[in-house]
């Protein structure tokens, strides 16, 4: 296969020195996260696995766990949101409008069907295996059914940068569906949480989900059009354009959370980058590099170890109840089998061949971001109620969220990295190659180089 090196492999650790203790700990986590990713890349595994592992070690290993256990949650939450904003901007810039228009119905099917069916399967399994009441069982189902954009998007962008699947728009399909999938899962979780604790009007909670999605898309479309004209062209306007895009994305992420419409944020970031890039592409010549993508790629190099290190640090081994691990594994396994089957069926009659359809379930496997974000919400609500029974249910949901991160994030990342080059066609300079053809091209290139 043609030799390419992931930008993370060549990145030197950057440690930002600040006076306050929390920032120093974040800087240490970032440096260690990068180092873990760099080392694990030597054994041909995705660097994000090393970053996840280092984050988990800094939270669970005695002596060094001071870094993870004394971390200000406000700092870590904000940094995680910034990193997710950067990767969603990068994803939006990488969306192919032609492929998206062609696959629009498939995007909706892939976003909704696996999420809802897995939620139902895990709710039924957890009700009978773990003894959860139906409201809590469906709450767990929505927590576990969300795919992780933090794992899926970088993995798909890496394949896209190397030319895999772009002939059919597969990276665009998966990235676009991942954002909708998360909004659906978070919305469902919020509705069931309100039912379980009887907070607020249920009808309002149900309407809130679609309203958040529409608000996010509307913000992205309007903001993207504004970015066609602002900033005006001049000296360093590419840099200013990149920073303006980043600022608009951060406004969507933190602004939506501030007005308690957090589901609108991710779709807003994805949409604003996509709409802005639609016009920006016409300004550059065919063979020119995309400078905005380069700026965002540099930002991602800086924030990638932070994001995965912090996600890894959410894994607290001491909070995993041994009595529920076995039944929890069974519940998770049932849901994942159902998800893999439904993901495969969701892309039928979408123009993909059998190998490409087979790749979709592997790409739809990892979980991490949503589980880390909302896994403990139900437990916090139960503790505020002061009900020991509800706290026990909340601990089961948190344990299951941790298990899903430990199991699916590394397996999913490895599966995407391994199956992508084997199941997807590679397009190099507008020509398609099978894996054997690409290997032959590599050999010829090596001979020519010698």
Automatic annotation (TrEMBL):
Keyword tags: Membrane, Transmembrane, Transmembrane helix
Cellular-component GO terms for this entry: membrane
Membrane topology: Multi-pass membrane protein
InterPro entries associated with the record: Cation/H_exchanger_TM, CPA1_transporter, Na+/solute_symporter_sf
GO biological processes: proton transmembrane transport
Compartments where found: Membrane
All residue ranges annotated as the Cation/H+ exchanger transmembrane domain in the record: 34-416
Protein source organism: Mytilus edulis (Blue mussel)
Top-level taxon of origin: Eukaryota
Name this protein carries in UniProt: SLC9B1_2
Matches recorded under Pfam families: Na_H_Exchanger
UniProt similarity note: Belongs to the monovalent cation:proton antiporter 1 (CPA1) transporter (TC 2.A.36) family.
GO MF term (any one): antiporter activity
Stretches that traverse the bilayer: 35-58, 136-157, 169-193, 213-231, 238-257, 263-280, 292-313, 325-346, 358-376, 396-419
